[in-house]
Amino acid sequence: MKAGQRLTLKRPQHGMRSYLAVAGGIDVPPVMGSCSTDLKVGIGGLEGRLLKDGDRLPIGKSKRDSMEAQGVKQLLWGNRIRALPGPEYHEFDRASQDAFWRSPWQLSSQSNRMGYRLQGQILKRTTDRELLSHGLLPGVVQVPHNGQPIVLMNDAQTTGGYPRIACIIEADMYHLAQIPLGQPIHFCPVFTGRGTKSTARSATLF
Length: 206
Hints:
This protein has about 210 residues and is α+β, with helices and mostly antiparallel strands. The chain has helices spanning about 95-100, 175, 190-205, and strands at about 35-40, 45, 80-85, 105, 115-120, 135, 140, 150, 160, 165-170, 185-190. The radius of gyration is 20 Å and the shape is elongated. Keywords: ATP-binding, Hydrolase, Nucleotide-binding.
């Protein structure tokens, strides 16, 4: 784009979000090494808040005039998300294990950037033992006491004590974030080696 030109953004035809790449990036003061915005804490980006009409975003200097368009991904067919069994997968009864992979899940309206709450068949454990707090990463699927899974997203906490039934491979997290409310979500088991290769292949596009 050139100075004076206007860019109009419309609703995406597929998925939930569109992305705008700006050469040189948005020139705002970094917080903890990032220029992104955390609305819950109110830091980063433009004064830590949502954008509004009339806002002006300063643009950084670009080191190159243009670059080849690549890495634009089509959404996967059927909303199939690949995942690995989690550390506490064996603590769920056989019916719950089967339901996790075979039953459709729907995204709850209570979902946010911290966690995607899923609605479907209640998952049950075969033990009542309490877990010590453990480390967490985006993609981990926790199951709280109500038996409804929660997928940790980019703004999730770093520790927790709920059992982890699965972990979504990093290569499919972008697709999960694009699934609208009301559409069914299906989890597919994947072997560690294949999941690692898919993630590495996605990383080469950035």
